[in-house]
Amino acid sequence: MTTFKISAPFKVAALAALTLAVASPALAQTATGSPLANDGPYAGATRQDFYQPSDRINQIQAAIQQGALAGARARHAMAELTTIREDLKYRMARHNGNLLDWDRELINQKLDALVKQYPALRT
Fold it and tell me: d(Cα 81, Cα 59) in Å, to the nearest integer?
């Protein structure tokens, strides 16, 4: 029978890994006692309400209508905004009115690109 001798650093590493695995659920508890309370970037709002693309579309549209852009630039920006709005409606319709996180991210990326193209639309 062969026996293996485990050195002290390996014993310490194994003990640390075991301790972390056992302690992880306890670390997930917050001061209120609920696991993983919503205190990150979505604090105070549901994921659906946080940075709603439809609200952002309305803000950009209001900026265009209030004269942030003029002439052909305003018409082009409004046409692109309409395309983004239609894309948003399509993506929501696919999931019974819900907007999935990756769809929300895609729509926000399109809005970011529009604002980058027309910096006067920054809200």
Answer: 11
